[in-house]
Amino acid sequence: MFTLTAKVRGAKESPVTLRKSGFIPAVYYGKKDKSTPIAINTLSFKKVWKGAGQSSIITLETDHGGIDSLLYEVQVDAITGEPIHADFYAVDKNTEIYANVPFEFVGVSPAVKDLGGVLVKVLHEIEVKSLPKDLPHNITVDISSLSALDSHIALGDIKLPNGVTVSEKTTEIIVLVSTPREEVIDEPIVPVDLTAIEVEKKGKKEEEGIVEGVEEATPIKSDKKSDK
């Protein structure tokens, strides 16, 4: 379970001032909770964000009590990459929720290690439905069963945590091992021997009775009549 202390902030409080004082401006809302602006210690937020991600329940400790929520969105600075604002979605512990949960790939595939296959991760996360208390941080996929080329693991091959369901088809492929492609080696380009071509041209001209550099004589017609 992840917990963050959140203090309700006034609408007129400057986000810039909050950040300079070591807090990140945030907001939480839900079906039964109106949008409420809050402020959270930046260092604490970054630590929880790294551990919980967007697929684990985070309890916001406020003056109004604990609020179970999911980290819905985080805005980061385009230059520094530091978080500058966060949205939390408040959930009802008795109502099932939908969330995207990442796959965690463990083990070593014999087809990759021994046969030179290429591991292809088709899916990196999956949308699940569960009660907030049953929502997993990730779903483990053991790839050690991939022992042959072109073998795969489908959604129906893994065991989901108790209380968790998915809407995707059980035939949906999560990960596979593809056959490595043979490397195509380009044949070297043989340079053209221009000298040989020139010699061949000369030979053809000589066969036709034409010597290069000498023009063929044009017969001259005589106007003188021959004596009878």
UniProtKB/TrEMBL annotation:
The keyword RNA-binding applies. GO terms for biological process: translation. Residues 205-228 are annotated as: Disordered. InterPro entries: Rbsml_bL25/Gln-tRNA_synth_N, Ribosomal_bL25/Gln-tRNA_synth, Ribosomal_bL25_b-dom, Ribosomal_bL25_C, Ribosomal_bL25_long, Ribosomal_L25_dom, Ribosomal_uL5_bac-type. Residues 97-181 form the Large ribosomal subunit protein bL25 beta domain. SUPFAM superfamilies: Ribosomal protein L25-like. One of its GO terms (cellular component) is cytosolic large ribosomal subunit. Keywords: Ribonucleoprotein, Ribosomal protein, RNA-binding, rRNA-binding. It comes from the Bacteria. Signal peptide: none annotated. The keyword Ribonucleoprotein applies. One of its GO terms (molecular function) is 5S rRNA binding. Residues 4-88 form the Large ribosomal subunit protein bL25 L25 domain. Pfam families: Ribosomal_L25p, Ribosomal_TL5_C. NCBIfam families: bL25_bact_ctc (TIGR00731). Belongs to the bacterial ribosomal protein bL25 family. CTC subfamily. Part of the 50S ribosomal subunit; part of the 5S rRNA/L5/L18/L25 subcomplex. Contacts the 5S rRNA. Binds to the 5S rRNA independently of L5 and L18. HAMAP family: Ribosomal_bL25_CTC. This is one of the proteins that binds to the 5S RNA in the ribosome where it forms part of the central protuberance. This is Large ribosomal subunit protein bL25. It comes from Candidatus Lloydbacteria bacterium RIFCSPHIGHO2_01_FULL_41_20. The gene is rplY.
